[in-house]
Amino acid sequence: MSKPIEVLFVCTGNTCRSPMAEGLFNLKVQRLGLEMHASSCGISAFTAPASENAVEAARELGADISGHMARQINEFIVDSADYIFCVGSRHAYALMNAFPESKGKIFTLSDRDIADPYGGTLDDYRSTAREISDAIDKLIPKLREKLK
């Protein structure tokens, strides 16, 4: 059995967007029986759980991120990932500058920046979760090609 593709999702604080992306991605690839796994981290993260609204918005789409704890990006995490998907272009730019040797595996999750729902309503989080879910639905077939 080959090593699963390791995907990393990155946002700012690792309490909203990237944990939702991690949970939704892992749910979708598990349902499809694909050898892929996601984790997440933040560019400016402090140890904290996922926000309550992020947990609820992800739960409504079938993903359980209730046990998530935010973590700060570091060289080991970057090196461990096969692909890194950032929720915004400024995150990708910051990572490419901080880890220039990894430029070839750093991308944005969507063709437009995914708005940060931090401090917003549950509906804001639901909207962000749906946007992330749609972006992941487009991403998985591309990654699936890499498994062939």
What is the residue-mean pLDDT, rounded to a whole number?
96
Our measurement of the CA-to-CA distance between the termini, rounded to an integer number of angstroms, reads: 13 Å
Low-confidence stretches: none
| Sheet with the most strands: spatial strand order | 2-1-3-4
CATH architecture grouping: 3-Layer(aba) Sandwich
| CATH class categorisation | Alpha Beta
| CA-based shape | globular
State the domain count.
Answer: 1
Number of helices: 5
- What integer value in Å does the Rg equal? 14 Å
Q: Percentage of helical residues?
A: 40-55%
CATH superfamily: Response regulator
Question: Biggest sheet, in brief?
Answer: 4 strands, parallel
- CATH overall fold name: Rossmann fold
What's the count of strands? 4
Percentage of residues in DSSP E strands: 5-15%
- Listing every helix as H and every strand as E from the N terminus to the C terminus, the arrangement reads EHEHHEHEH
Structural class: alpha/beta
Furnish the topology, listing elements before pairings.
Layout: E1 5-11, H1 17-32, E2 36-42, H2 52-60, H3 75-80, E3 83-86, H4 89-98, E4 106-108, H5 122-147
Parallel strand pairs: 1-2, 1-3, 3-4
Short description:
The chain is α/β, with parallel strands linked by helices. It is built from five helices and four strands.
